[in-house]
Amino acid sequence: MNTLHRIQSAIIRFGNRNYGKVGIIGVPFEKGQRKKGVAHGPQVIRAARLVQELELLGLDVKDYGDISYEVKHVDGVNNMSYLGDFAGCTSCLSEQVQKVLKEGRRVLTIGGDHSLGVGSIDGHVKEKKDVAVIWVDAHADLNTNKTSESGNVHGMPVALLTSELADYWPHLPGMDWQQPMLSIRNVAYIGLRSIDRYERLVIEKFGITAFGMEDVERYGIHDVVYMALSKIDPDESKSLHVSFDIDSLDPLEAPCTGTPVRGGLSLREAVHLMEIVCRSNRLNALDFVELNPHIGSQHDVQLTVEAAIHIIQAGFGYSRRGLKVPKGITDMPLQTFR
């Protein structure tokens, strides 16, 4: 065992608990969109030593496994593909998120497509009540079944979650467990660059906090994140939820995703975003979604998965300046590590 591995092992053994406990939930769900493969996102992210990489940050990590669900019987709703599967999956996810939070752990949900945000955020709001959401995405995901051109539910989660848009929906069989309790005033977008006319109208009508890539270019990612937080959590009192779609990154950084849009965030900008939110000490839930290992070459998959690990690590305490070593280790003689 080399010196680096000895130090890493010592950090885990002595337990740097500055960052607390994390619970991982896998959601291998891909029926919110039409491209096969995104259901394997949790598998490839875990295979990249996700748990071990988080443990090296001194975290107490518990993997709760993958969500399993029963399809709900639904009918009579037009233009919502696989509504019964979506309702069953997100209902189970909401319950699991509540369970993890009740056990004193922060939640990492790995998908799967972005429709899972309905379940993860619903569970967060039900448990913590006062929640603010940063939605990091190339797309606004604000369509309803009446405005969507595709009927893909992964383009609808923000509209389903927010109370101000509740009247825009018909009754949705199978979704009675979910009530839109999140105010649109508590949601901020970062990374937008592909928005349809209806979504643009909704953003302007409700004054939604939305930072597109042109804003990132104008102000820089550092100021954009702080401006977003000051809008949705001015008193610095809310429980924070980041719902991170890998397509917010430029496809040159993360090519393996179903709806890529050129001109996105760099990996450095995404990592810095997560570092800022982590340092707020209010981040209690992170979704990471839309990584599709069936798209692209083996090199593309490796590039995208590495980006995912870097972003997740930053959200849970990794510092590019180097980690703080627990006092019990700094007091140990150097020969311990030889």
TrEMBL record:
Pathway: Nitrogen metabolism; urea cycle; L-ornithine and urea from L-arginine: step 1/1. GO terms for molecular function: arginase activity; manganese ion binding. Its cofactor is Mn(2+). Its EC number is 3.5.3.1. CDD domains: Arginase. The keyword S-adenosyl-L-methionine does not apply. It catalyses: L-arginine + H2O = urea + L-ornithine. Mn(2+) binds at H114, D137, H139, D141, D245, D247. GO terms for cellular component: cytosol; nucleus. GO terms for biological process: L-arginine catabolic process to proline via ornithine; urea cycle. This is Arginase. It comes from Ceratina calcarata. The gene is LOC108627235.
